[in-house]
Give the backbone structure.
Amino acid sequence: MAEIVRRRIPFGGRRSITAPATCAQRQMWNLIRQELPDAAFYDFCLPVALPARCTVRDVLAATGELLRRHESLRTAFHTAADGTLVQRVVRSGTFEAEICTAGPAEDPQSVLAAWRARMRERPFDLDAGPPLRVMVAVADGTPVLAAYCVSHLAADLMSMRRLTADLTRLVTARVTGRPAPPADPARQPAEQARYERSPRGEALLARAHAYWQRQLATVPATMFPAATTAPTTAPTTAPTTAPTTAPTAAPVRYSAAMDSRAASLALPVLAERWRVSTSAVLLTAVALLLGRRAGLPACAFRLLAANRSVPELRAAVANLHQEVVATIDLRGESAREIARGAFAACTTAYANGLFDPDRAAELLRAAERDRGTGISLSCCFNDIRQTHGVRAAGALAPAPVVRAAMADTVVEPHGFEEAETFFLVVDDEVPGWLRLVLNADTAVLTPAEVHAFLYDVERLLVEFVECDEGRTAGHPV
């Protein structure tokens, strides 16, 4: 068993400031409240391998520098007397570090797994902050791995990737005796809140709210009609993303992951043929399968919008993403036509990804009243690949090669947790492979059906590759 030493490490920043919460922070706050008492549900951990010859002191000093640079990592949250969420950046304080020395029979990955399990049982005190902890795994007297646990209120996945990359750069600079690399200019969350209340920000929010209103007027009420229960009115504090049907019992969810070379090979072929992104290709396949199951001519998803299109936010460490609804029309004459429509629908959705979650919740309730039925937006698609919007360059695999790669596909149970009826995550962490992780409520997809759905996505992509342009009109679903 690893020897664990916990330390409190001081940090300091340029300023302290209190500001209203941003739209993305408020949406995440609503989601966290929805999961109570499981307050750690939206905390997440990301590891990073450490450069050779570094010390524990190097890692902790670099972490302190990251807190100095990024105000989101030293921010606390509280609800004001009028019920609004407030962010409070502190100038100084301490963060928690665990130094875990692996025992003789342990490896760093087992130390990491044990630390993650401990963090899952220790939610952050968001009223006090900071919303970050660090672990350093030591093997044979040398730090070999570090990991950050951060509240989703403070950082999204893109931010976490930047944090781990910056940690590597800062530690490497210390080890080699070079100056620390400067921080990239980025808007801090307090400034983002100010921007959202500026005339330009208010105009963007108004445009997004009009988009939500149009979507909610026609979006399918649910993608799983057989599992729908009687509608109820959503409470005032409900987040936009909360289903508005009354559950009869606590849902049981199941996750599985598919690792597929065939899907990885098929996506760029189809993206090139159809002139869309690889993400739009995959979304088309998933939408066609869900639409067939539901017997519906359209499929509604919540897509995770990064909201980093402006230069001031590309290097920001903050929670910026929001979940925006998009409807995919499945009535096209060909798979290519459906994919082109999906690409356009996603582009429009992402352009309206910044919105007031409370206003969106009001629009959802109004749409339910107008339509006389509950509307469930609990079907999510999250492509977390770093290049998912770009068609792959280079030689494209011929159809027989894509078909043959199906023999290597593996589908296994996975530990992924989500709070939605259907949540599909796409990743390509291993080069040459596509990983699809599907978490579903077993009331709508049994574990066996989760596995079958993943295989069906791969099968459909391969069949699309095998179809020539004339045969695509029959999109085999």
